[in-house]
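testing teh design pipeline on a random one, pls ignore if ur not involved
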């Protein structure tokens, strides 16, 4: 993960580059935002979305924009009247469409719980550009109220992936355990454990038994190492290769 302060240093949005080590493809750019209104130096209203629009987002870069937009629009909330949509809100929606972004959030799923006479609202949203959508990078997008902690906003969660990358044997495990014969493996393990009865007795039998009330970390480590080696050898003999 790389914090891209070279692109923008606005306190209301944070840009991160996320990439799995070793992948050849471009990192995914995640922009986390909080849209609020601030007074500028000339006492004019300054919107976070204005600053975001000035960020150069290359369409070929996988980009996700997520966070608190503080905007009400019929595209994500069917109770919002289209005719009453403020011009500035529509400008943001048009800018997102013009940049090739589509909404990942599910319509009408509220993301902020209001108290009193106020209604629950839909203002926390996630948008992904065409590169992310085409490659299926963002998955399992959801709203999780359980992660709200002390906030009245619910957390937006999603996972990142890249279907173009086929991950082979991520743990370097070469055995097909589903096709393994349990009896053959146990037999092979027994042979390996008892290949040297003296070592088995001093390293395992005398250390790991129900009558032993205490032992040293070194003795436990030695026992674990021997058992591990024996299991590896037994797998080599009895478990088919993938």
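output:
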């Amino acid at each position: 993960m790389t914090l891209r302060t070279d692109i923008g240093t606005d306190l209301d949005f944070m840009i991160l580059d996320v990439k799995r080590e070793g992948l050849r493809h471009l990192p995914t750019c995640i922009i986390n935002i909080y849209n609020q209104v601030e007074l500028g130096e000339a006492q004019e209203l300054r919107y976070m979305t204005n600053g975001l629009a000035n960020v150069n987002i290359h369409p070929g870069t996988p980009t996700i924009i997520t966070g608190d937009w503080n905007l009400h629009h019929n595209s994500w909330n069917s109770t919002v009247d289209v005719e009453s949509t403020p011009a500035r809100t529509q400008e943001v929606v048009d800018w997102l469409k013009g940049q090739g972004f589509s909404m990942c959030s599910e319509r009408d799923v509220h993301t902020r719980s209001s108290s009193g006479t106020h209604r629950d609202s839909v203002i926390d949203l996630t948008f992904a550009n065409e590169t992310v959508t085409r490659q299926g990078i963002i998955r399992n997008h959801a709203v999780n109220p359980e992660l709200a902690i002390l906030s009245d906003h619910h957390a937006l969660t999603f996972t990142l992936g890249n279907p173009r990358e086929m991950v082979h044997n991520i743990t370097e495990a070469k055995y097909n355990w589903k096709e393994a014969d349990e009896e053959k493996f146990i037999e092979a393990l027994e042979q390996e454990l008892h290949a040297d009865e003296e070592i088995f007795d001093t390293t395992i039998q005398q250390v790991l038994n129900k009558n032993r009330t205490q032992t040293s970390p070194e003795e436990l480590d030695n026992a674990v190492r021997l058992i591990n080696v024996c299991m590896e050898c037994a797998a080599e003999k009895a478990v088919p290769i993938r």
